[in-house]
Amino acid sequence: MRTTMHHPGTPLHLLHLDSSARPGRGGIEPHGSWSRRLSHAFASRWRAARPHDRYTYRDLALQPPQPMPGNWVQAAFTPPAQRSVQLQAALTESDQLVAELRAADVLVVGLPMYNYGMPAALKAWADLVVRIGETFAITRTDGVTSYQPLLSDRPRRALLVTSRGAMGFGAGGDYAALNHADTALRAVLEFIGFTDIETVAAEGEETGGAVFEAAVAKALEQVERLAVRWSGAEQPAIAMHAA
Ligand SMILES: Cc1cc2nc3c(=O)[nH]c(=O)nc-3n(C[C@H](O)[C@H](O)[C@H](O)COP(=O)(O)O)c2cc1C
What we know:
It contains eight helices and seven strands, in the order E-H-E-H-H-H-E-H-E-E-E-H-E-H-H. The protein is α/β, with parallel strands linked by helices.
């Protein structure tokens, strides 16, 4: 894992995505979302530490990206200069989401587990940002295909904050093999060049009570610690010993 410290004086760009269908934040608004609570905790700590950074917020549940249109793949694989107006139009939303992601140094994603996977709107986002010639490349040598990430031009970090109704979906857990949510998004981000990806989970939302309260408290603490470490607010000497 790359652990490059961002210099506090260099402006960075934080991209913040949420994808829970529930609009409010858990524990703050009634029936709120815990993944939103965690992603906002990270973003507000980051922004307090680095008020001069750029910040972009996108609510994928409120404004879901279109599912991939029928001519999208053809459009993406057609060289830009040869694209018809229709093919260009098929890529408009993808162009915007790719540009937003390319501009980001740090990404925080609020990601609820829905039916063992990520919400459909977040999957639609992922399908639109993995773009040939934009975020990854393909080369063929002696008939063998290999893939190159194109967002590996500079250090990029991602924090995936997730909430799950049940328990045991984390690494080493009884149901780890059934987790196709944060693990799938991690694979996608690694594929396009993110090098430093962390996941923080609060499990047991459906159990609730003290069990989930403790899980949220621990997750909030982990998120805060990462925000301090990544924002460079912590002294490097201390960061070297941080978990
Ligand atoms: C449509 C739907 C599907 C869900 N599927 C799962 C699941 O597969 N596994 C699980 O542990 N929890 C599941 N849950 C529970 C959510 O993961 C849990 O409520 C979580 O807190 C949702 O995130 P949020 O609080 O950010 O909205 C599901 C909830 C919904 C609404």
